[in-house]
Write a structure and sequence with these properties.
Length: 102
């Protein structure tokens, strides 16, 4: 009985630590990091889909993330999201027609 309770507690503590580490990765440090976009979802044909599952996200320079959707017609959906959510987070979204820069 005690061993089971101890194992359950260890499992819960490990899950908490993993969750905390993931949250720490999303903290803005002045350097571009694609992990800050992991939890952001875009309407993709009626389904909320994580942005990293519908586009390539790369680091252009120390302060710029580049989002290139796999389908060009999704740029507009990502743009809408960028201007509403990303500006709230202090990012300055811009687009060149088929690429979104943060």
């Amino acid at each position: 009985m005690i061993e089971e309770t101890e194992q359950e507690t260890k499992d819960l503590m490990l899950k908490s630590i993993i969750s905390f580490e993931k949250k720490l990765q999303r903290i803005r440090t002045g350097r571009a990091n694609p992990s800050i976009l992991e939890q952001i979802e875009v309407d993709y044909y009626g389904t909320n889909t994580p942005i990293n599952q519908m586009s390539n996200i790369s680091i252009e320079d120390a302060r710029t993330l580049t989002i290139v959707p796999w389908e060009k017609d999704q740029v507009q959906n990502i743009e809408k999201l960028a201007y509403s959510i990303f500006r709230y987070r202090g990012l300055q979204p811009a687009t060149s027609g088929d690429v979104i820069l943060e």
